[in-house]
Amino acid sequence: MTIFFAGIGAVALFLLGLAFRASPSIAILVQILWLLAFLTLIVVVFMWIRSLRKQIQGLGGNFPLSIKEFTNVESDLKALFQRIKYMELEKWDQAAKQAGDSLVLMFSSTIDELTGVANRRRLEAYLTETADKSIPLSIIMMDIDYFKKVNDTYGHGVGDEVLRHFARVVQKAIRPDDFLARYGGEEFIVVCKASIEQAAQVAERIRKSIEKSQAKTAAGEIKITASLGIAEFREGDTPGIVKERADQALYKAKNGGRNKVEKDGD
């Protein structure tokens, strides 16, 4: 019977192919014939299932499993499948929690908890990744002027508020592809994919933004300024060498009266 209907199907498909090349009306006729053959197959299968069910019922106690037991088996199988499904969902839930924990760990290990910008560890990794790929590349090293006085006068809680304010202002002042990190204490670094002259423009924008802003703290509004030093990567330079030159430029800005931008080599 199966072979018979398979043959019908094959012939119908063959005729359908010819019909599409010939005429749309013939194609429709063949489609109708194919549909009738398919419906006939459904009827035959339904009748075969009914016949098989009657044979099983007729076996009664001689058959290894009664109809009731078949129902019980079906119920048990459904319960088993539900357990398997539940176990799979539990496994996916555990995997999702583990992935979430890993993401939190990764996030906390690369982000400065106080300010929300990249931390020193992430900065070092970024410099290693970028130093060989982006020429020109410059580092802006900056320091909040007289920050120790803020801590001594208002306490470290207010000092933390000032640090958060400083990070927000700098983040708004830099370009979208510049990289900001807290280097330590009140010292921050911006990595610019730019020449030292272009980085100097970014640094001056940062300086002006800080000078115009006021940190809103529990002790009231506090006005701050910043000093900035810039150095550019040269061929063969390591990140450590460039940071050292930027730090020297920063030291020059501090000694020159603070609230200034100084470039390496000037």
Automatic annotation (TrEMBL):
PROSITE patterns: GGDEF. One of its GO terms (molecular function) is diguanylate cyclase activity. InterPro entries: Diguanylate_Cyclase, GGDEF_dom, Nucleotide_cyclase, Rev_trsase/Diguanyl_cyclase. Residues 135-266 form the GGDEF domain. Signal peptide: none annotated. Keywords: Membrane, Transmembrane, Transmembrane helix. It holds the Pfam family GGDEF. The chain crosses the membrane at residues 31-49. SUPFAM superfamilies: Nucleotide cyclase. PANTHER family: DIGUANYLATE CYCLASE DGCM-RELATED, REGULATORY COMPONENTS OF SENSORY TRANSDUCTION SYSTEM. This is Diguanylate cyclase (GGDEF) domain-containing protein. It comes from Desulfotruncus arcticus DSM 17038.
